[in-house]
Amino acid sequence: MSDIVLGIETSCDDTAVALVNSNGQVLSSVISSQIDVHNAYGGIYPEFAARAHILSILPTVNEALLRANIKPEQIEAIGVTRGPGLISSLLVGINTAVGLGLGWNKKVIGINHLRGHLRSADLEQQRVEYPAIILLVSGGHTFLAYMESSVNIKLLGSTRDDSVGETYDKVGRMLGLDYPGGPAVDRLASKGNPSISFPRPLLKTGLEFSFSGLKSSVSRYIDSCKKPVYEDIAASFVQSVMEILIKKSHLALKSYPAKSFVIVGGVAASPQLRAEAAKLSQELNIQLSLPPIHWSTDNAAMIALATFDYLNLSMFKEPIPELQLTISDF
Amino acid sequence: MLTLGISTSSGQFALVLGEDNKLIFDSDDFQLSEKKDISILISTCLEFTKISVSSISNIIADIGPGGTSRVRTGIAFANSLAYSLGIAVCPVSSLELAGIEAWDNYARPVISTVKSINGNAYCGFFNNNKLISIEYGTINNLIPHLANGLEEIVVVGYHRELIKSLLPTKKIIDSGSLYGNAKILVEKSYLFLDRAIFFPKFAIPINEKTIQR
């Protein structure tokens, strides 16, 4: 049996295909970005995302095979994101995977996108020491989970409303910044003074998150200001977000016996979050596991690596869209 | 020569297999169309016909217009299967499919329509065994222009009643159909095989943007 999985990820606005082996070595990872498609809307337009996927999926598969110099016969299985995500986007990836699997006579497994994110920290090198506390912060999700191993996961708390990445994007739009808002807001924040006291929702209430109140507060502040200083607004907003994320992570790390603290998802690319997380880990003497920034955002290498977990457990999930998957699901 | 036909643009998913224009499998016969799952359709087809997928010579795919996610589902599968087998995919519009069937029955010019968003529709005009044009807009704007100079018209699709009311002086033949039957994809495959494309080309769904290009 070969040791290579083809991963396909189309849950949102990136068409991604990768070839990965069971050690997490990435043989190729190709991502066709749709930033230009959605920039004009300040967010993701699902129908346009799906249209872009259908145009780019096969060239992306082909490019991934070429870059890795791998023939289809060398692939053990195909792992494809089955959810959560945008249904119209998921359908393109799933049905492409089904067609490839049939033509190449390969097993096709439907993978939980969230489990892919959790495995992203082990791409290219083993970084996570278990048990671990994991903070997933992305455009679609925000939660803390306890991982006894790479497959035994307990959800500790998630957002009750908006994800942190979505909040970043919306605040970015309020500040007149391009989509995606995260990196632009962080850059602007680095030039400002966090002088505005924005709320920290649910700060002292368990491990759940809430960001809609913070977002509304930023909007009200901008509306009420005659001459808003955008750098200071960004800096104050980022400070609020960081305090929430770090305080919740601190509570989780104190409550569970973790050897490492893992941060994944697009917001893990935030320099402010990386700096604050480093401080926290040092304070608690816990290993900090941060995947390289290019593995923090959606990619197919993480889906391919997660596929090995499913193969090892003989967990052959059908490639059928499932929009309501949680981190506890396979 | 084995030809696989896939049509997912209408409310029902259909998969057909034919050998030299002779239909040997039609998913409609298995009451599978409501499943909206290509995997079930193809596995039933291969099991029933005892044919290996590698024996398929080409794939004829309905590229819409129709339900956007449904069309993409069929096309994503058709493209990737063709790519993985190294065979051709032949794109066919759902409006052409409807036109062929209605022309066969009535031998009159055909207007077929597919509902779209914001009060718009796709209109296909089919005459003398050929799809002449596909247009996008409101039925009220498109139909008088398409019907100009015609005395008799066959109508297919969602807007049949509306078209009758818009053209009170014309003889309108109501086909009674909402869309063309997928079995045409294999029974008339000779009409489509000359448009075969191989990767790096592949089938692309019809939408309002592709029509305007």
Describe the structure.
The complex is a heterodimer of chains A (330) and B (213). In chain A, helix 4 (113-119) crosses helix 11 (301-312). Chain A has 11 helices and 10 strands. Chain A is 43% helix and 18% strand. Chain A has helices at 35-39, 46-68, 87-104, 113-119, 164-174, 181-189, 212-224, 230-255, 271-284, 293-296, 301-312; strands at residues 4-9, 14-21, 26-33, 77-83, 107-112, 132-137, 142-147, 153-158, 260-264, 287-289. In chain A, the strands form 2 sheets. In chain A, strands 3-2-1-4-5 form a 5-stranded mixed beta sheet, with helices on both faces. The model of chain A has no long low-confidence stretch (mean pLDDT 94). Chain A folds into 2 domains: 4-119 and 295-312, ATPase, nucleotide binding domain (Nucleotidyltransferase, domain 5, 2-Layer Sandwich); 128-290, 2-Layer Sandwich (Nucleotidyltransferase, domain 5). With 330 residues, chain A is of the alpha/beta class. Chain A starts with a strand and ends in an 18-residue tail after the last helix. With 213 residues, chain B is α/β, with parallel strands linked by helices. Chain B folds into 2 domains: 2-93 and 180-195, 2-Layer Sandwich (Nucleotidyltransferase, domain 5), CATH 3.30.420; 94-174, Nucleotidyltransferase, domain 5. In chain B, 32% of the residues lie in helices and 28% in strands. Chain B has 7 helices and 10 strands. Chain B has a 5-stranded mixed beta sheet. Chain B has a 5-stranded mixed beta sheet with strand order 8-7-6-9-10, with helices on both faces. In chain B, helix 2 links the parallel strand 4 and strand 5. Chain B is elongated. Chain B starts with a strand and ends with a helix. Classes of the chains: A alpha/beta (330), B alpha/beta (213).
